[in-house]
Specification:
The complex is a heterodimer of chains A (291) and B (106).
Chain A: H1 6-18, H2 27-37, H3 43-51, H4 54-64, H5 78-103, H6 113-133, H7 139-148, H8 151-159, H9 161-174, H10 178-185, H11 190-200, H12 205-213, H13 225-240, H14 256-262, H15 269-283
Chain B: E1 2-5, E2 14-15, E3 19-20, E4 26-28, H1 36-44, E5 49-53, H2 65-80, H3 88-103
Antiparallel strand pairs in B: 1-5, 2-5, 3-4
Helix pairs in contact in B: 2-3
Amino acid sequence: MTNAPAHIEERLKRIADEVVGLPTLPPMLARMNQLMMDPGASAADVAKLLSSDPALASKVLRVVNSAFYGLANRVATVTHAIVILGFNTIRNIVLGSSIFEQFKGDSGGLFDRTQFWKHSIACGAAARALGRRLGQQHLEELFVAGLLHDIGKVVEDQHLHEQFVQALTIARDRDCLLVAAEEQVLGVTHAEVGALLLGKWNLSKGMVEVVRCHHNPSVAAEGTRTATAIVHFADILARALRVGSGGDRKIPIVSDAAWQVLGLPLDQMDAIVTEAGEEIERAMFFLDFIR
Amino acid sequence: MKLVRLDEARAGQLVGRDVTDARGSLLFKAGTILTADLIQKLRGWKVTHLFVDDTPSAILPPLQRPAAKQAALDRELDSVFTGAVQHPVMARLREAAGRYLKARIK
């Protein structure tokens, strides 16, 4: 499943065993994945499935008609949305909405879930902006990968709460990155725990790898290095722009390997920051879904 | 400067003294401008009281507020980027983020 060293694999296996109730894939998404693997399925079939959950269907239409997609004309039906934006985009919108639904709520204390989602949305939006600048094809997948990059923190908060709070406290008191504190307290990081969850959900191997390696992009598998480098730097951009919080306030230093993969000229930093900042502003309406 | 209950603190006020948790760990530095988000955060951290600076020099006329906000932003970015700006990419990012955020301060 992962290329993690043996001791981490062992620790992860223990966590997977301990965490009996690892959240399951939202049922709508499971059915949608199934339908999308069926070569005979049409836009109407997907629309019929989506329309069976009117609340979700209306969320999809709100997202499709938002400034985030900037479509010239208003889209009134789910079928029309699928035709215009494609199955993958619609599935990713459903994925995003289902994730918010599944993980909303707040455990209180040091880990503020609203701030967490703000940071996650910002990272997704910054990844989408970077992807566009780099001429990447799959902007929606970059958005979702950014949105989910820290999902392991929510799993830790829900299932390994005491140790997670201990890690948050260390990160705050020593003003260090949460990922370093997690290594110390849990022996694994949210990146690995997140990858464990997404692997269990059968999300694409690429998505799992990006989440697993977003703090250590130099070890990402061949074929996922660009996406990993994008999400790695998008996380840094979201922190630099002070949008939300993933539970720590420190900023990671960009990996030289990732920066090389991105190949972005330093003198374009103002444009990069502006594009990311504006994309983040457009994406913030996703926050309505968690309220 | 006066000590107020957290529910009396208002966005836009200046934090008069460093805010620490029960164990004395620093949460926010004096000079930070309170925002709704910050007050919410302090509530989450179970802070019940804090000092706000209401001396005449701290109560800035509206026209000076953006300058104070810009200074607070610089302090925040400096603190977040501590140790990172030795890296040339991070140094550029610190500057570009500062310019972007300052341009949006009202």
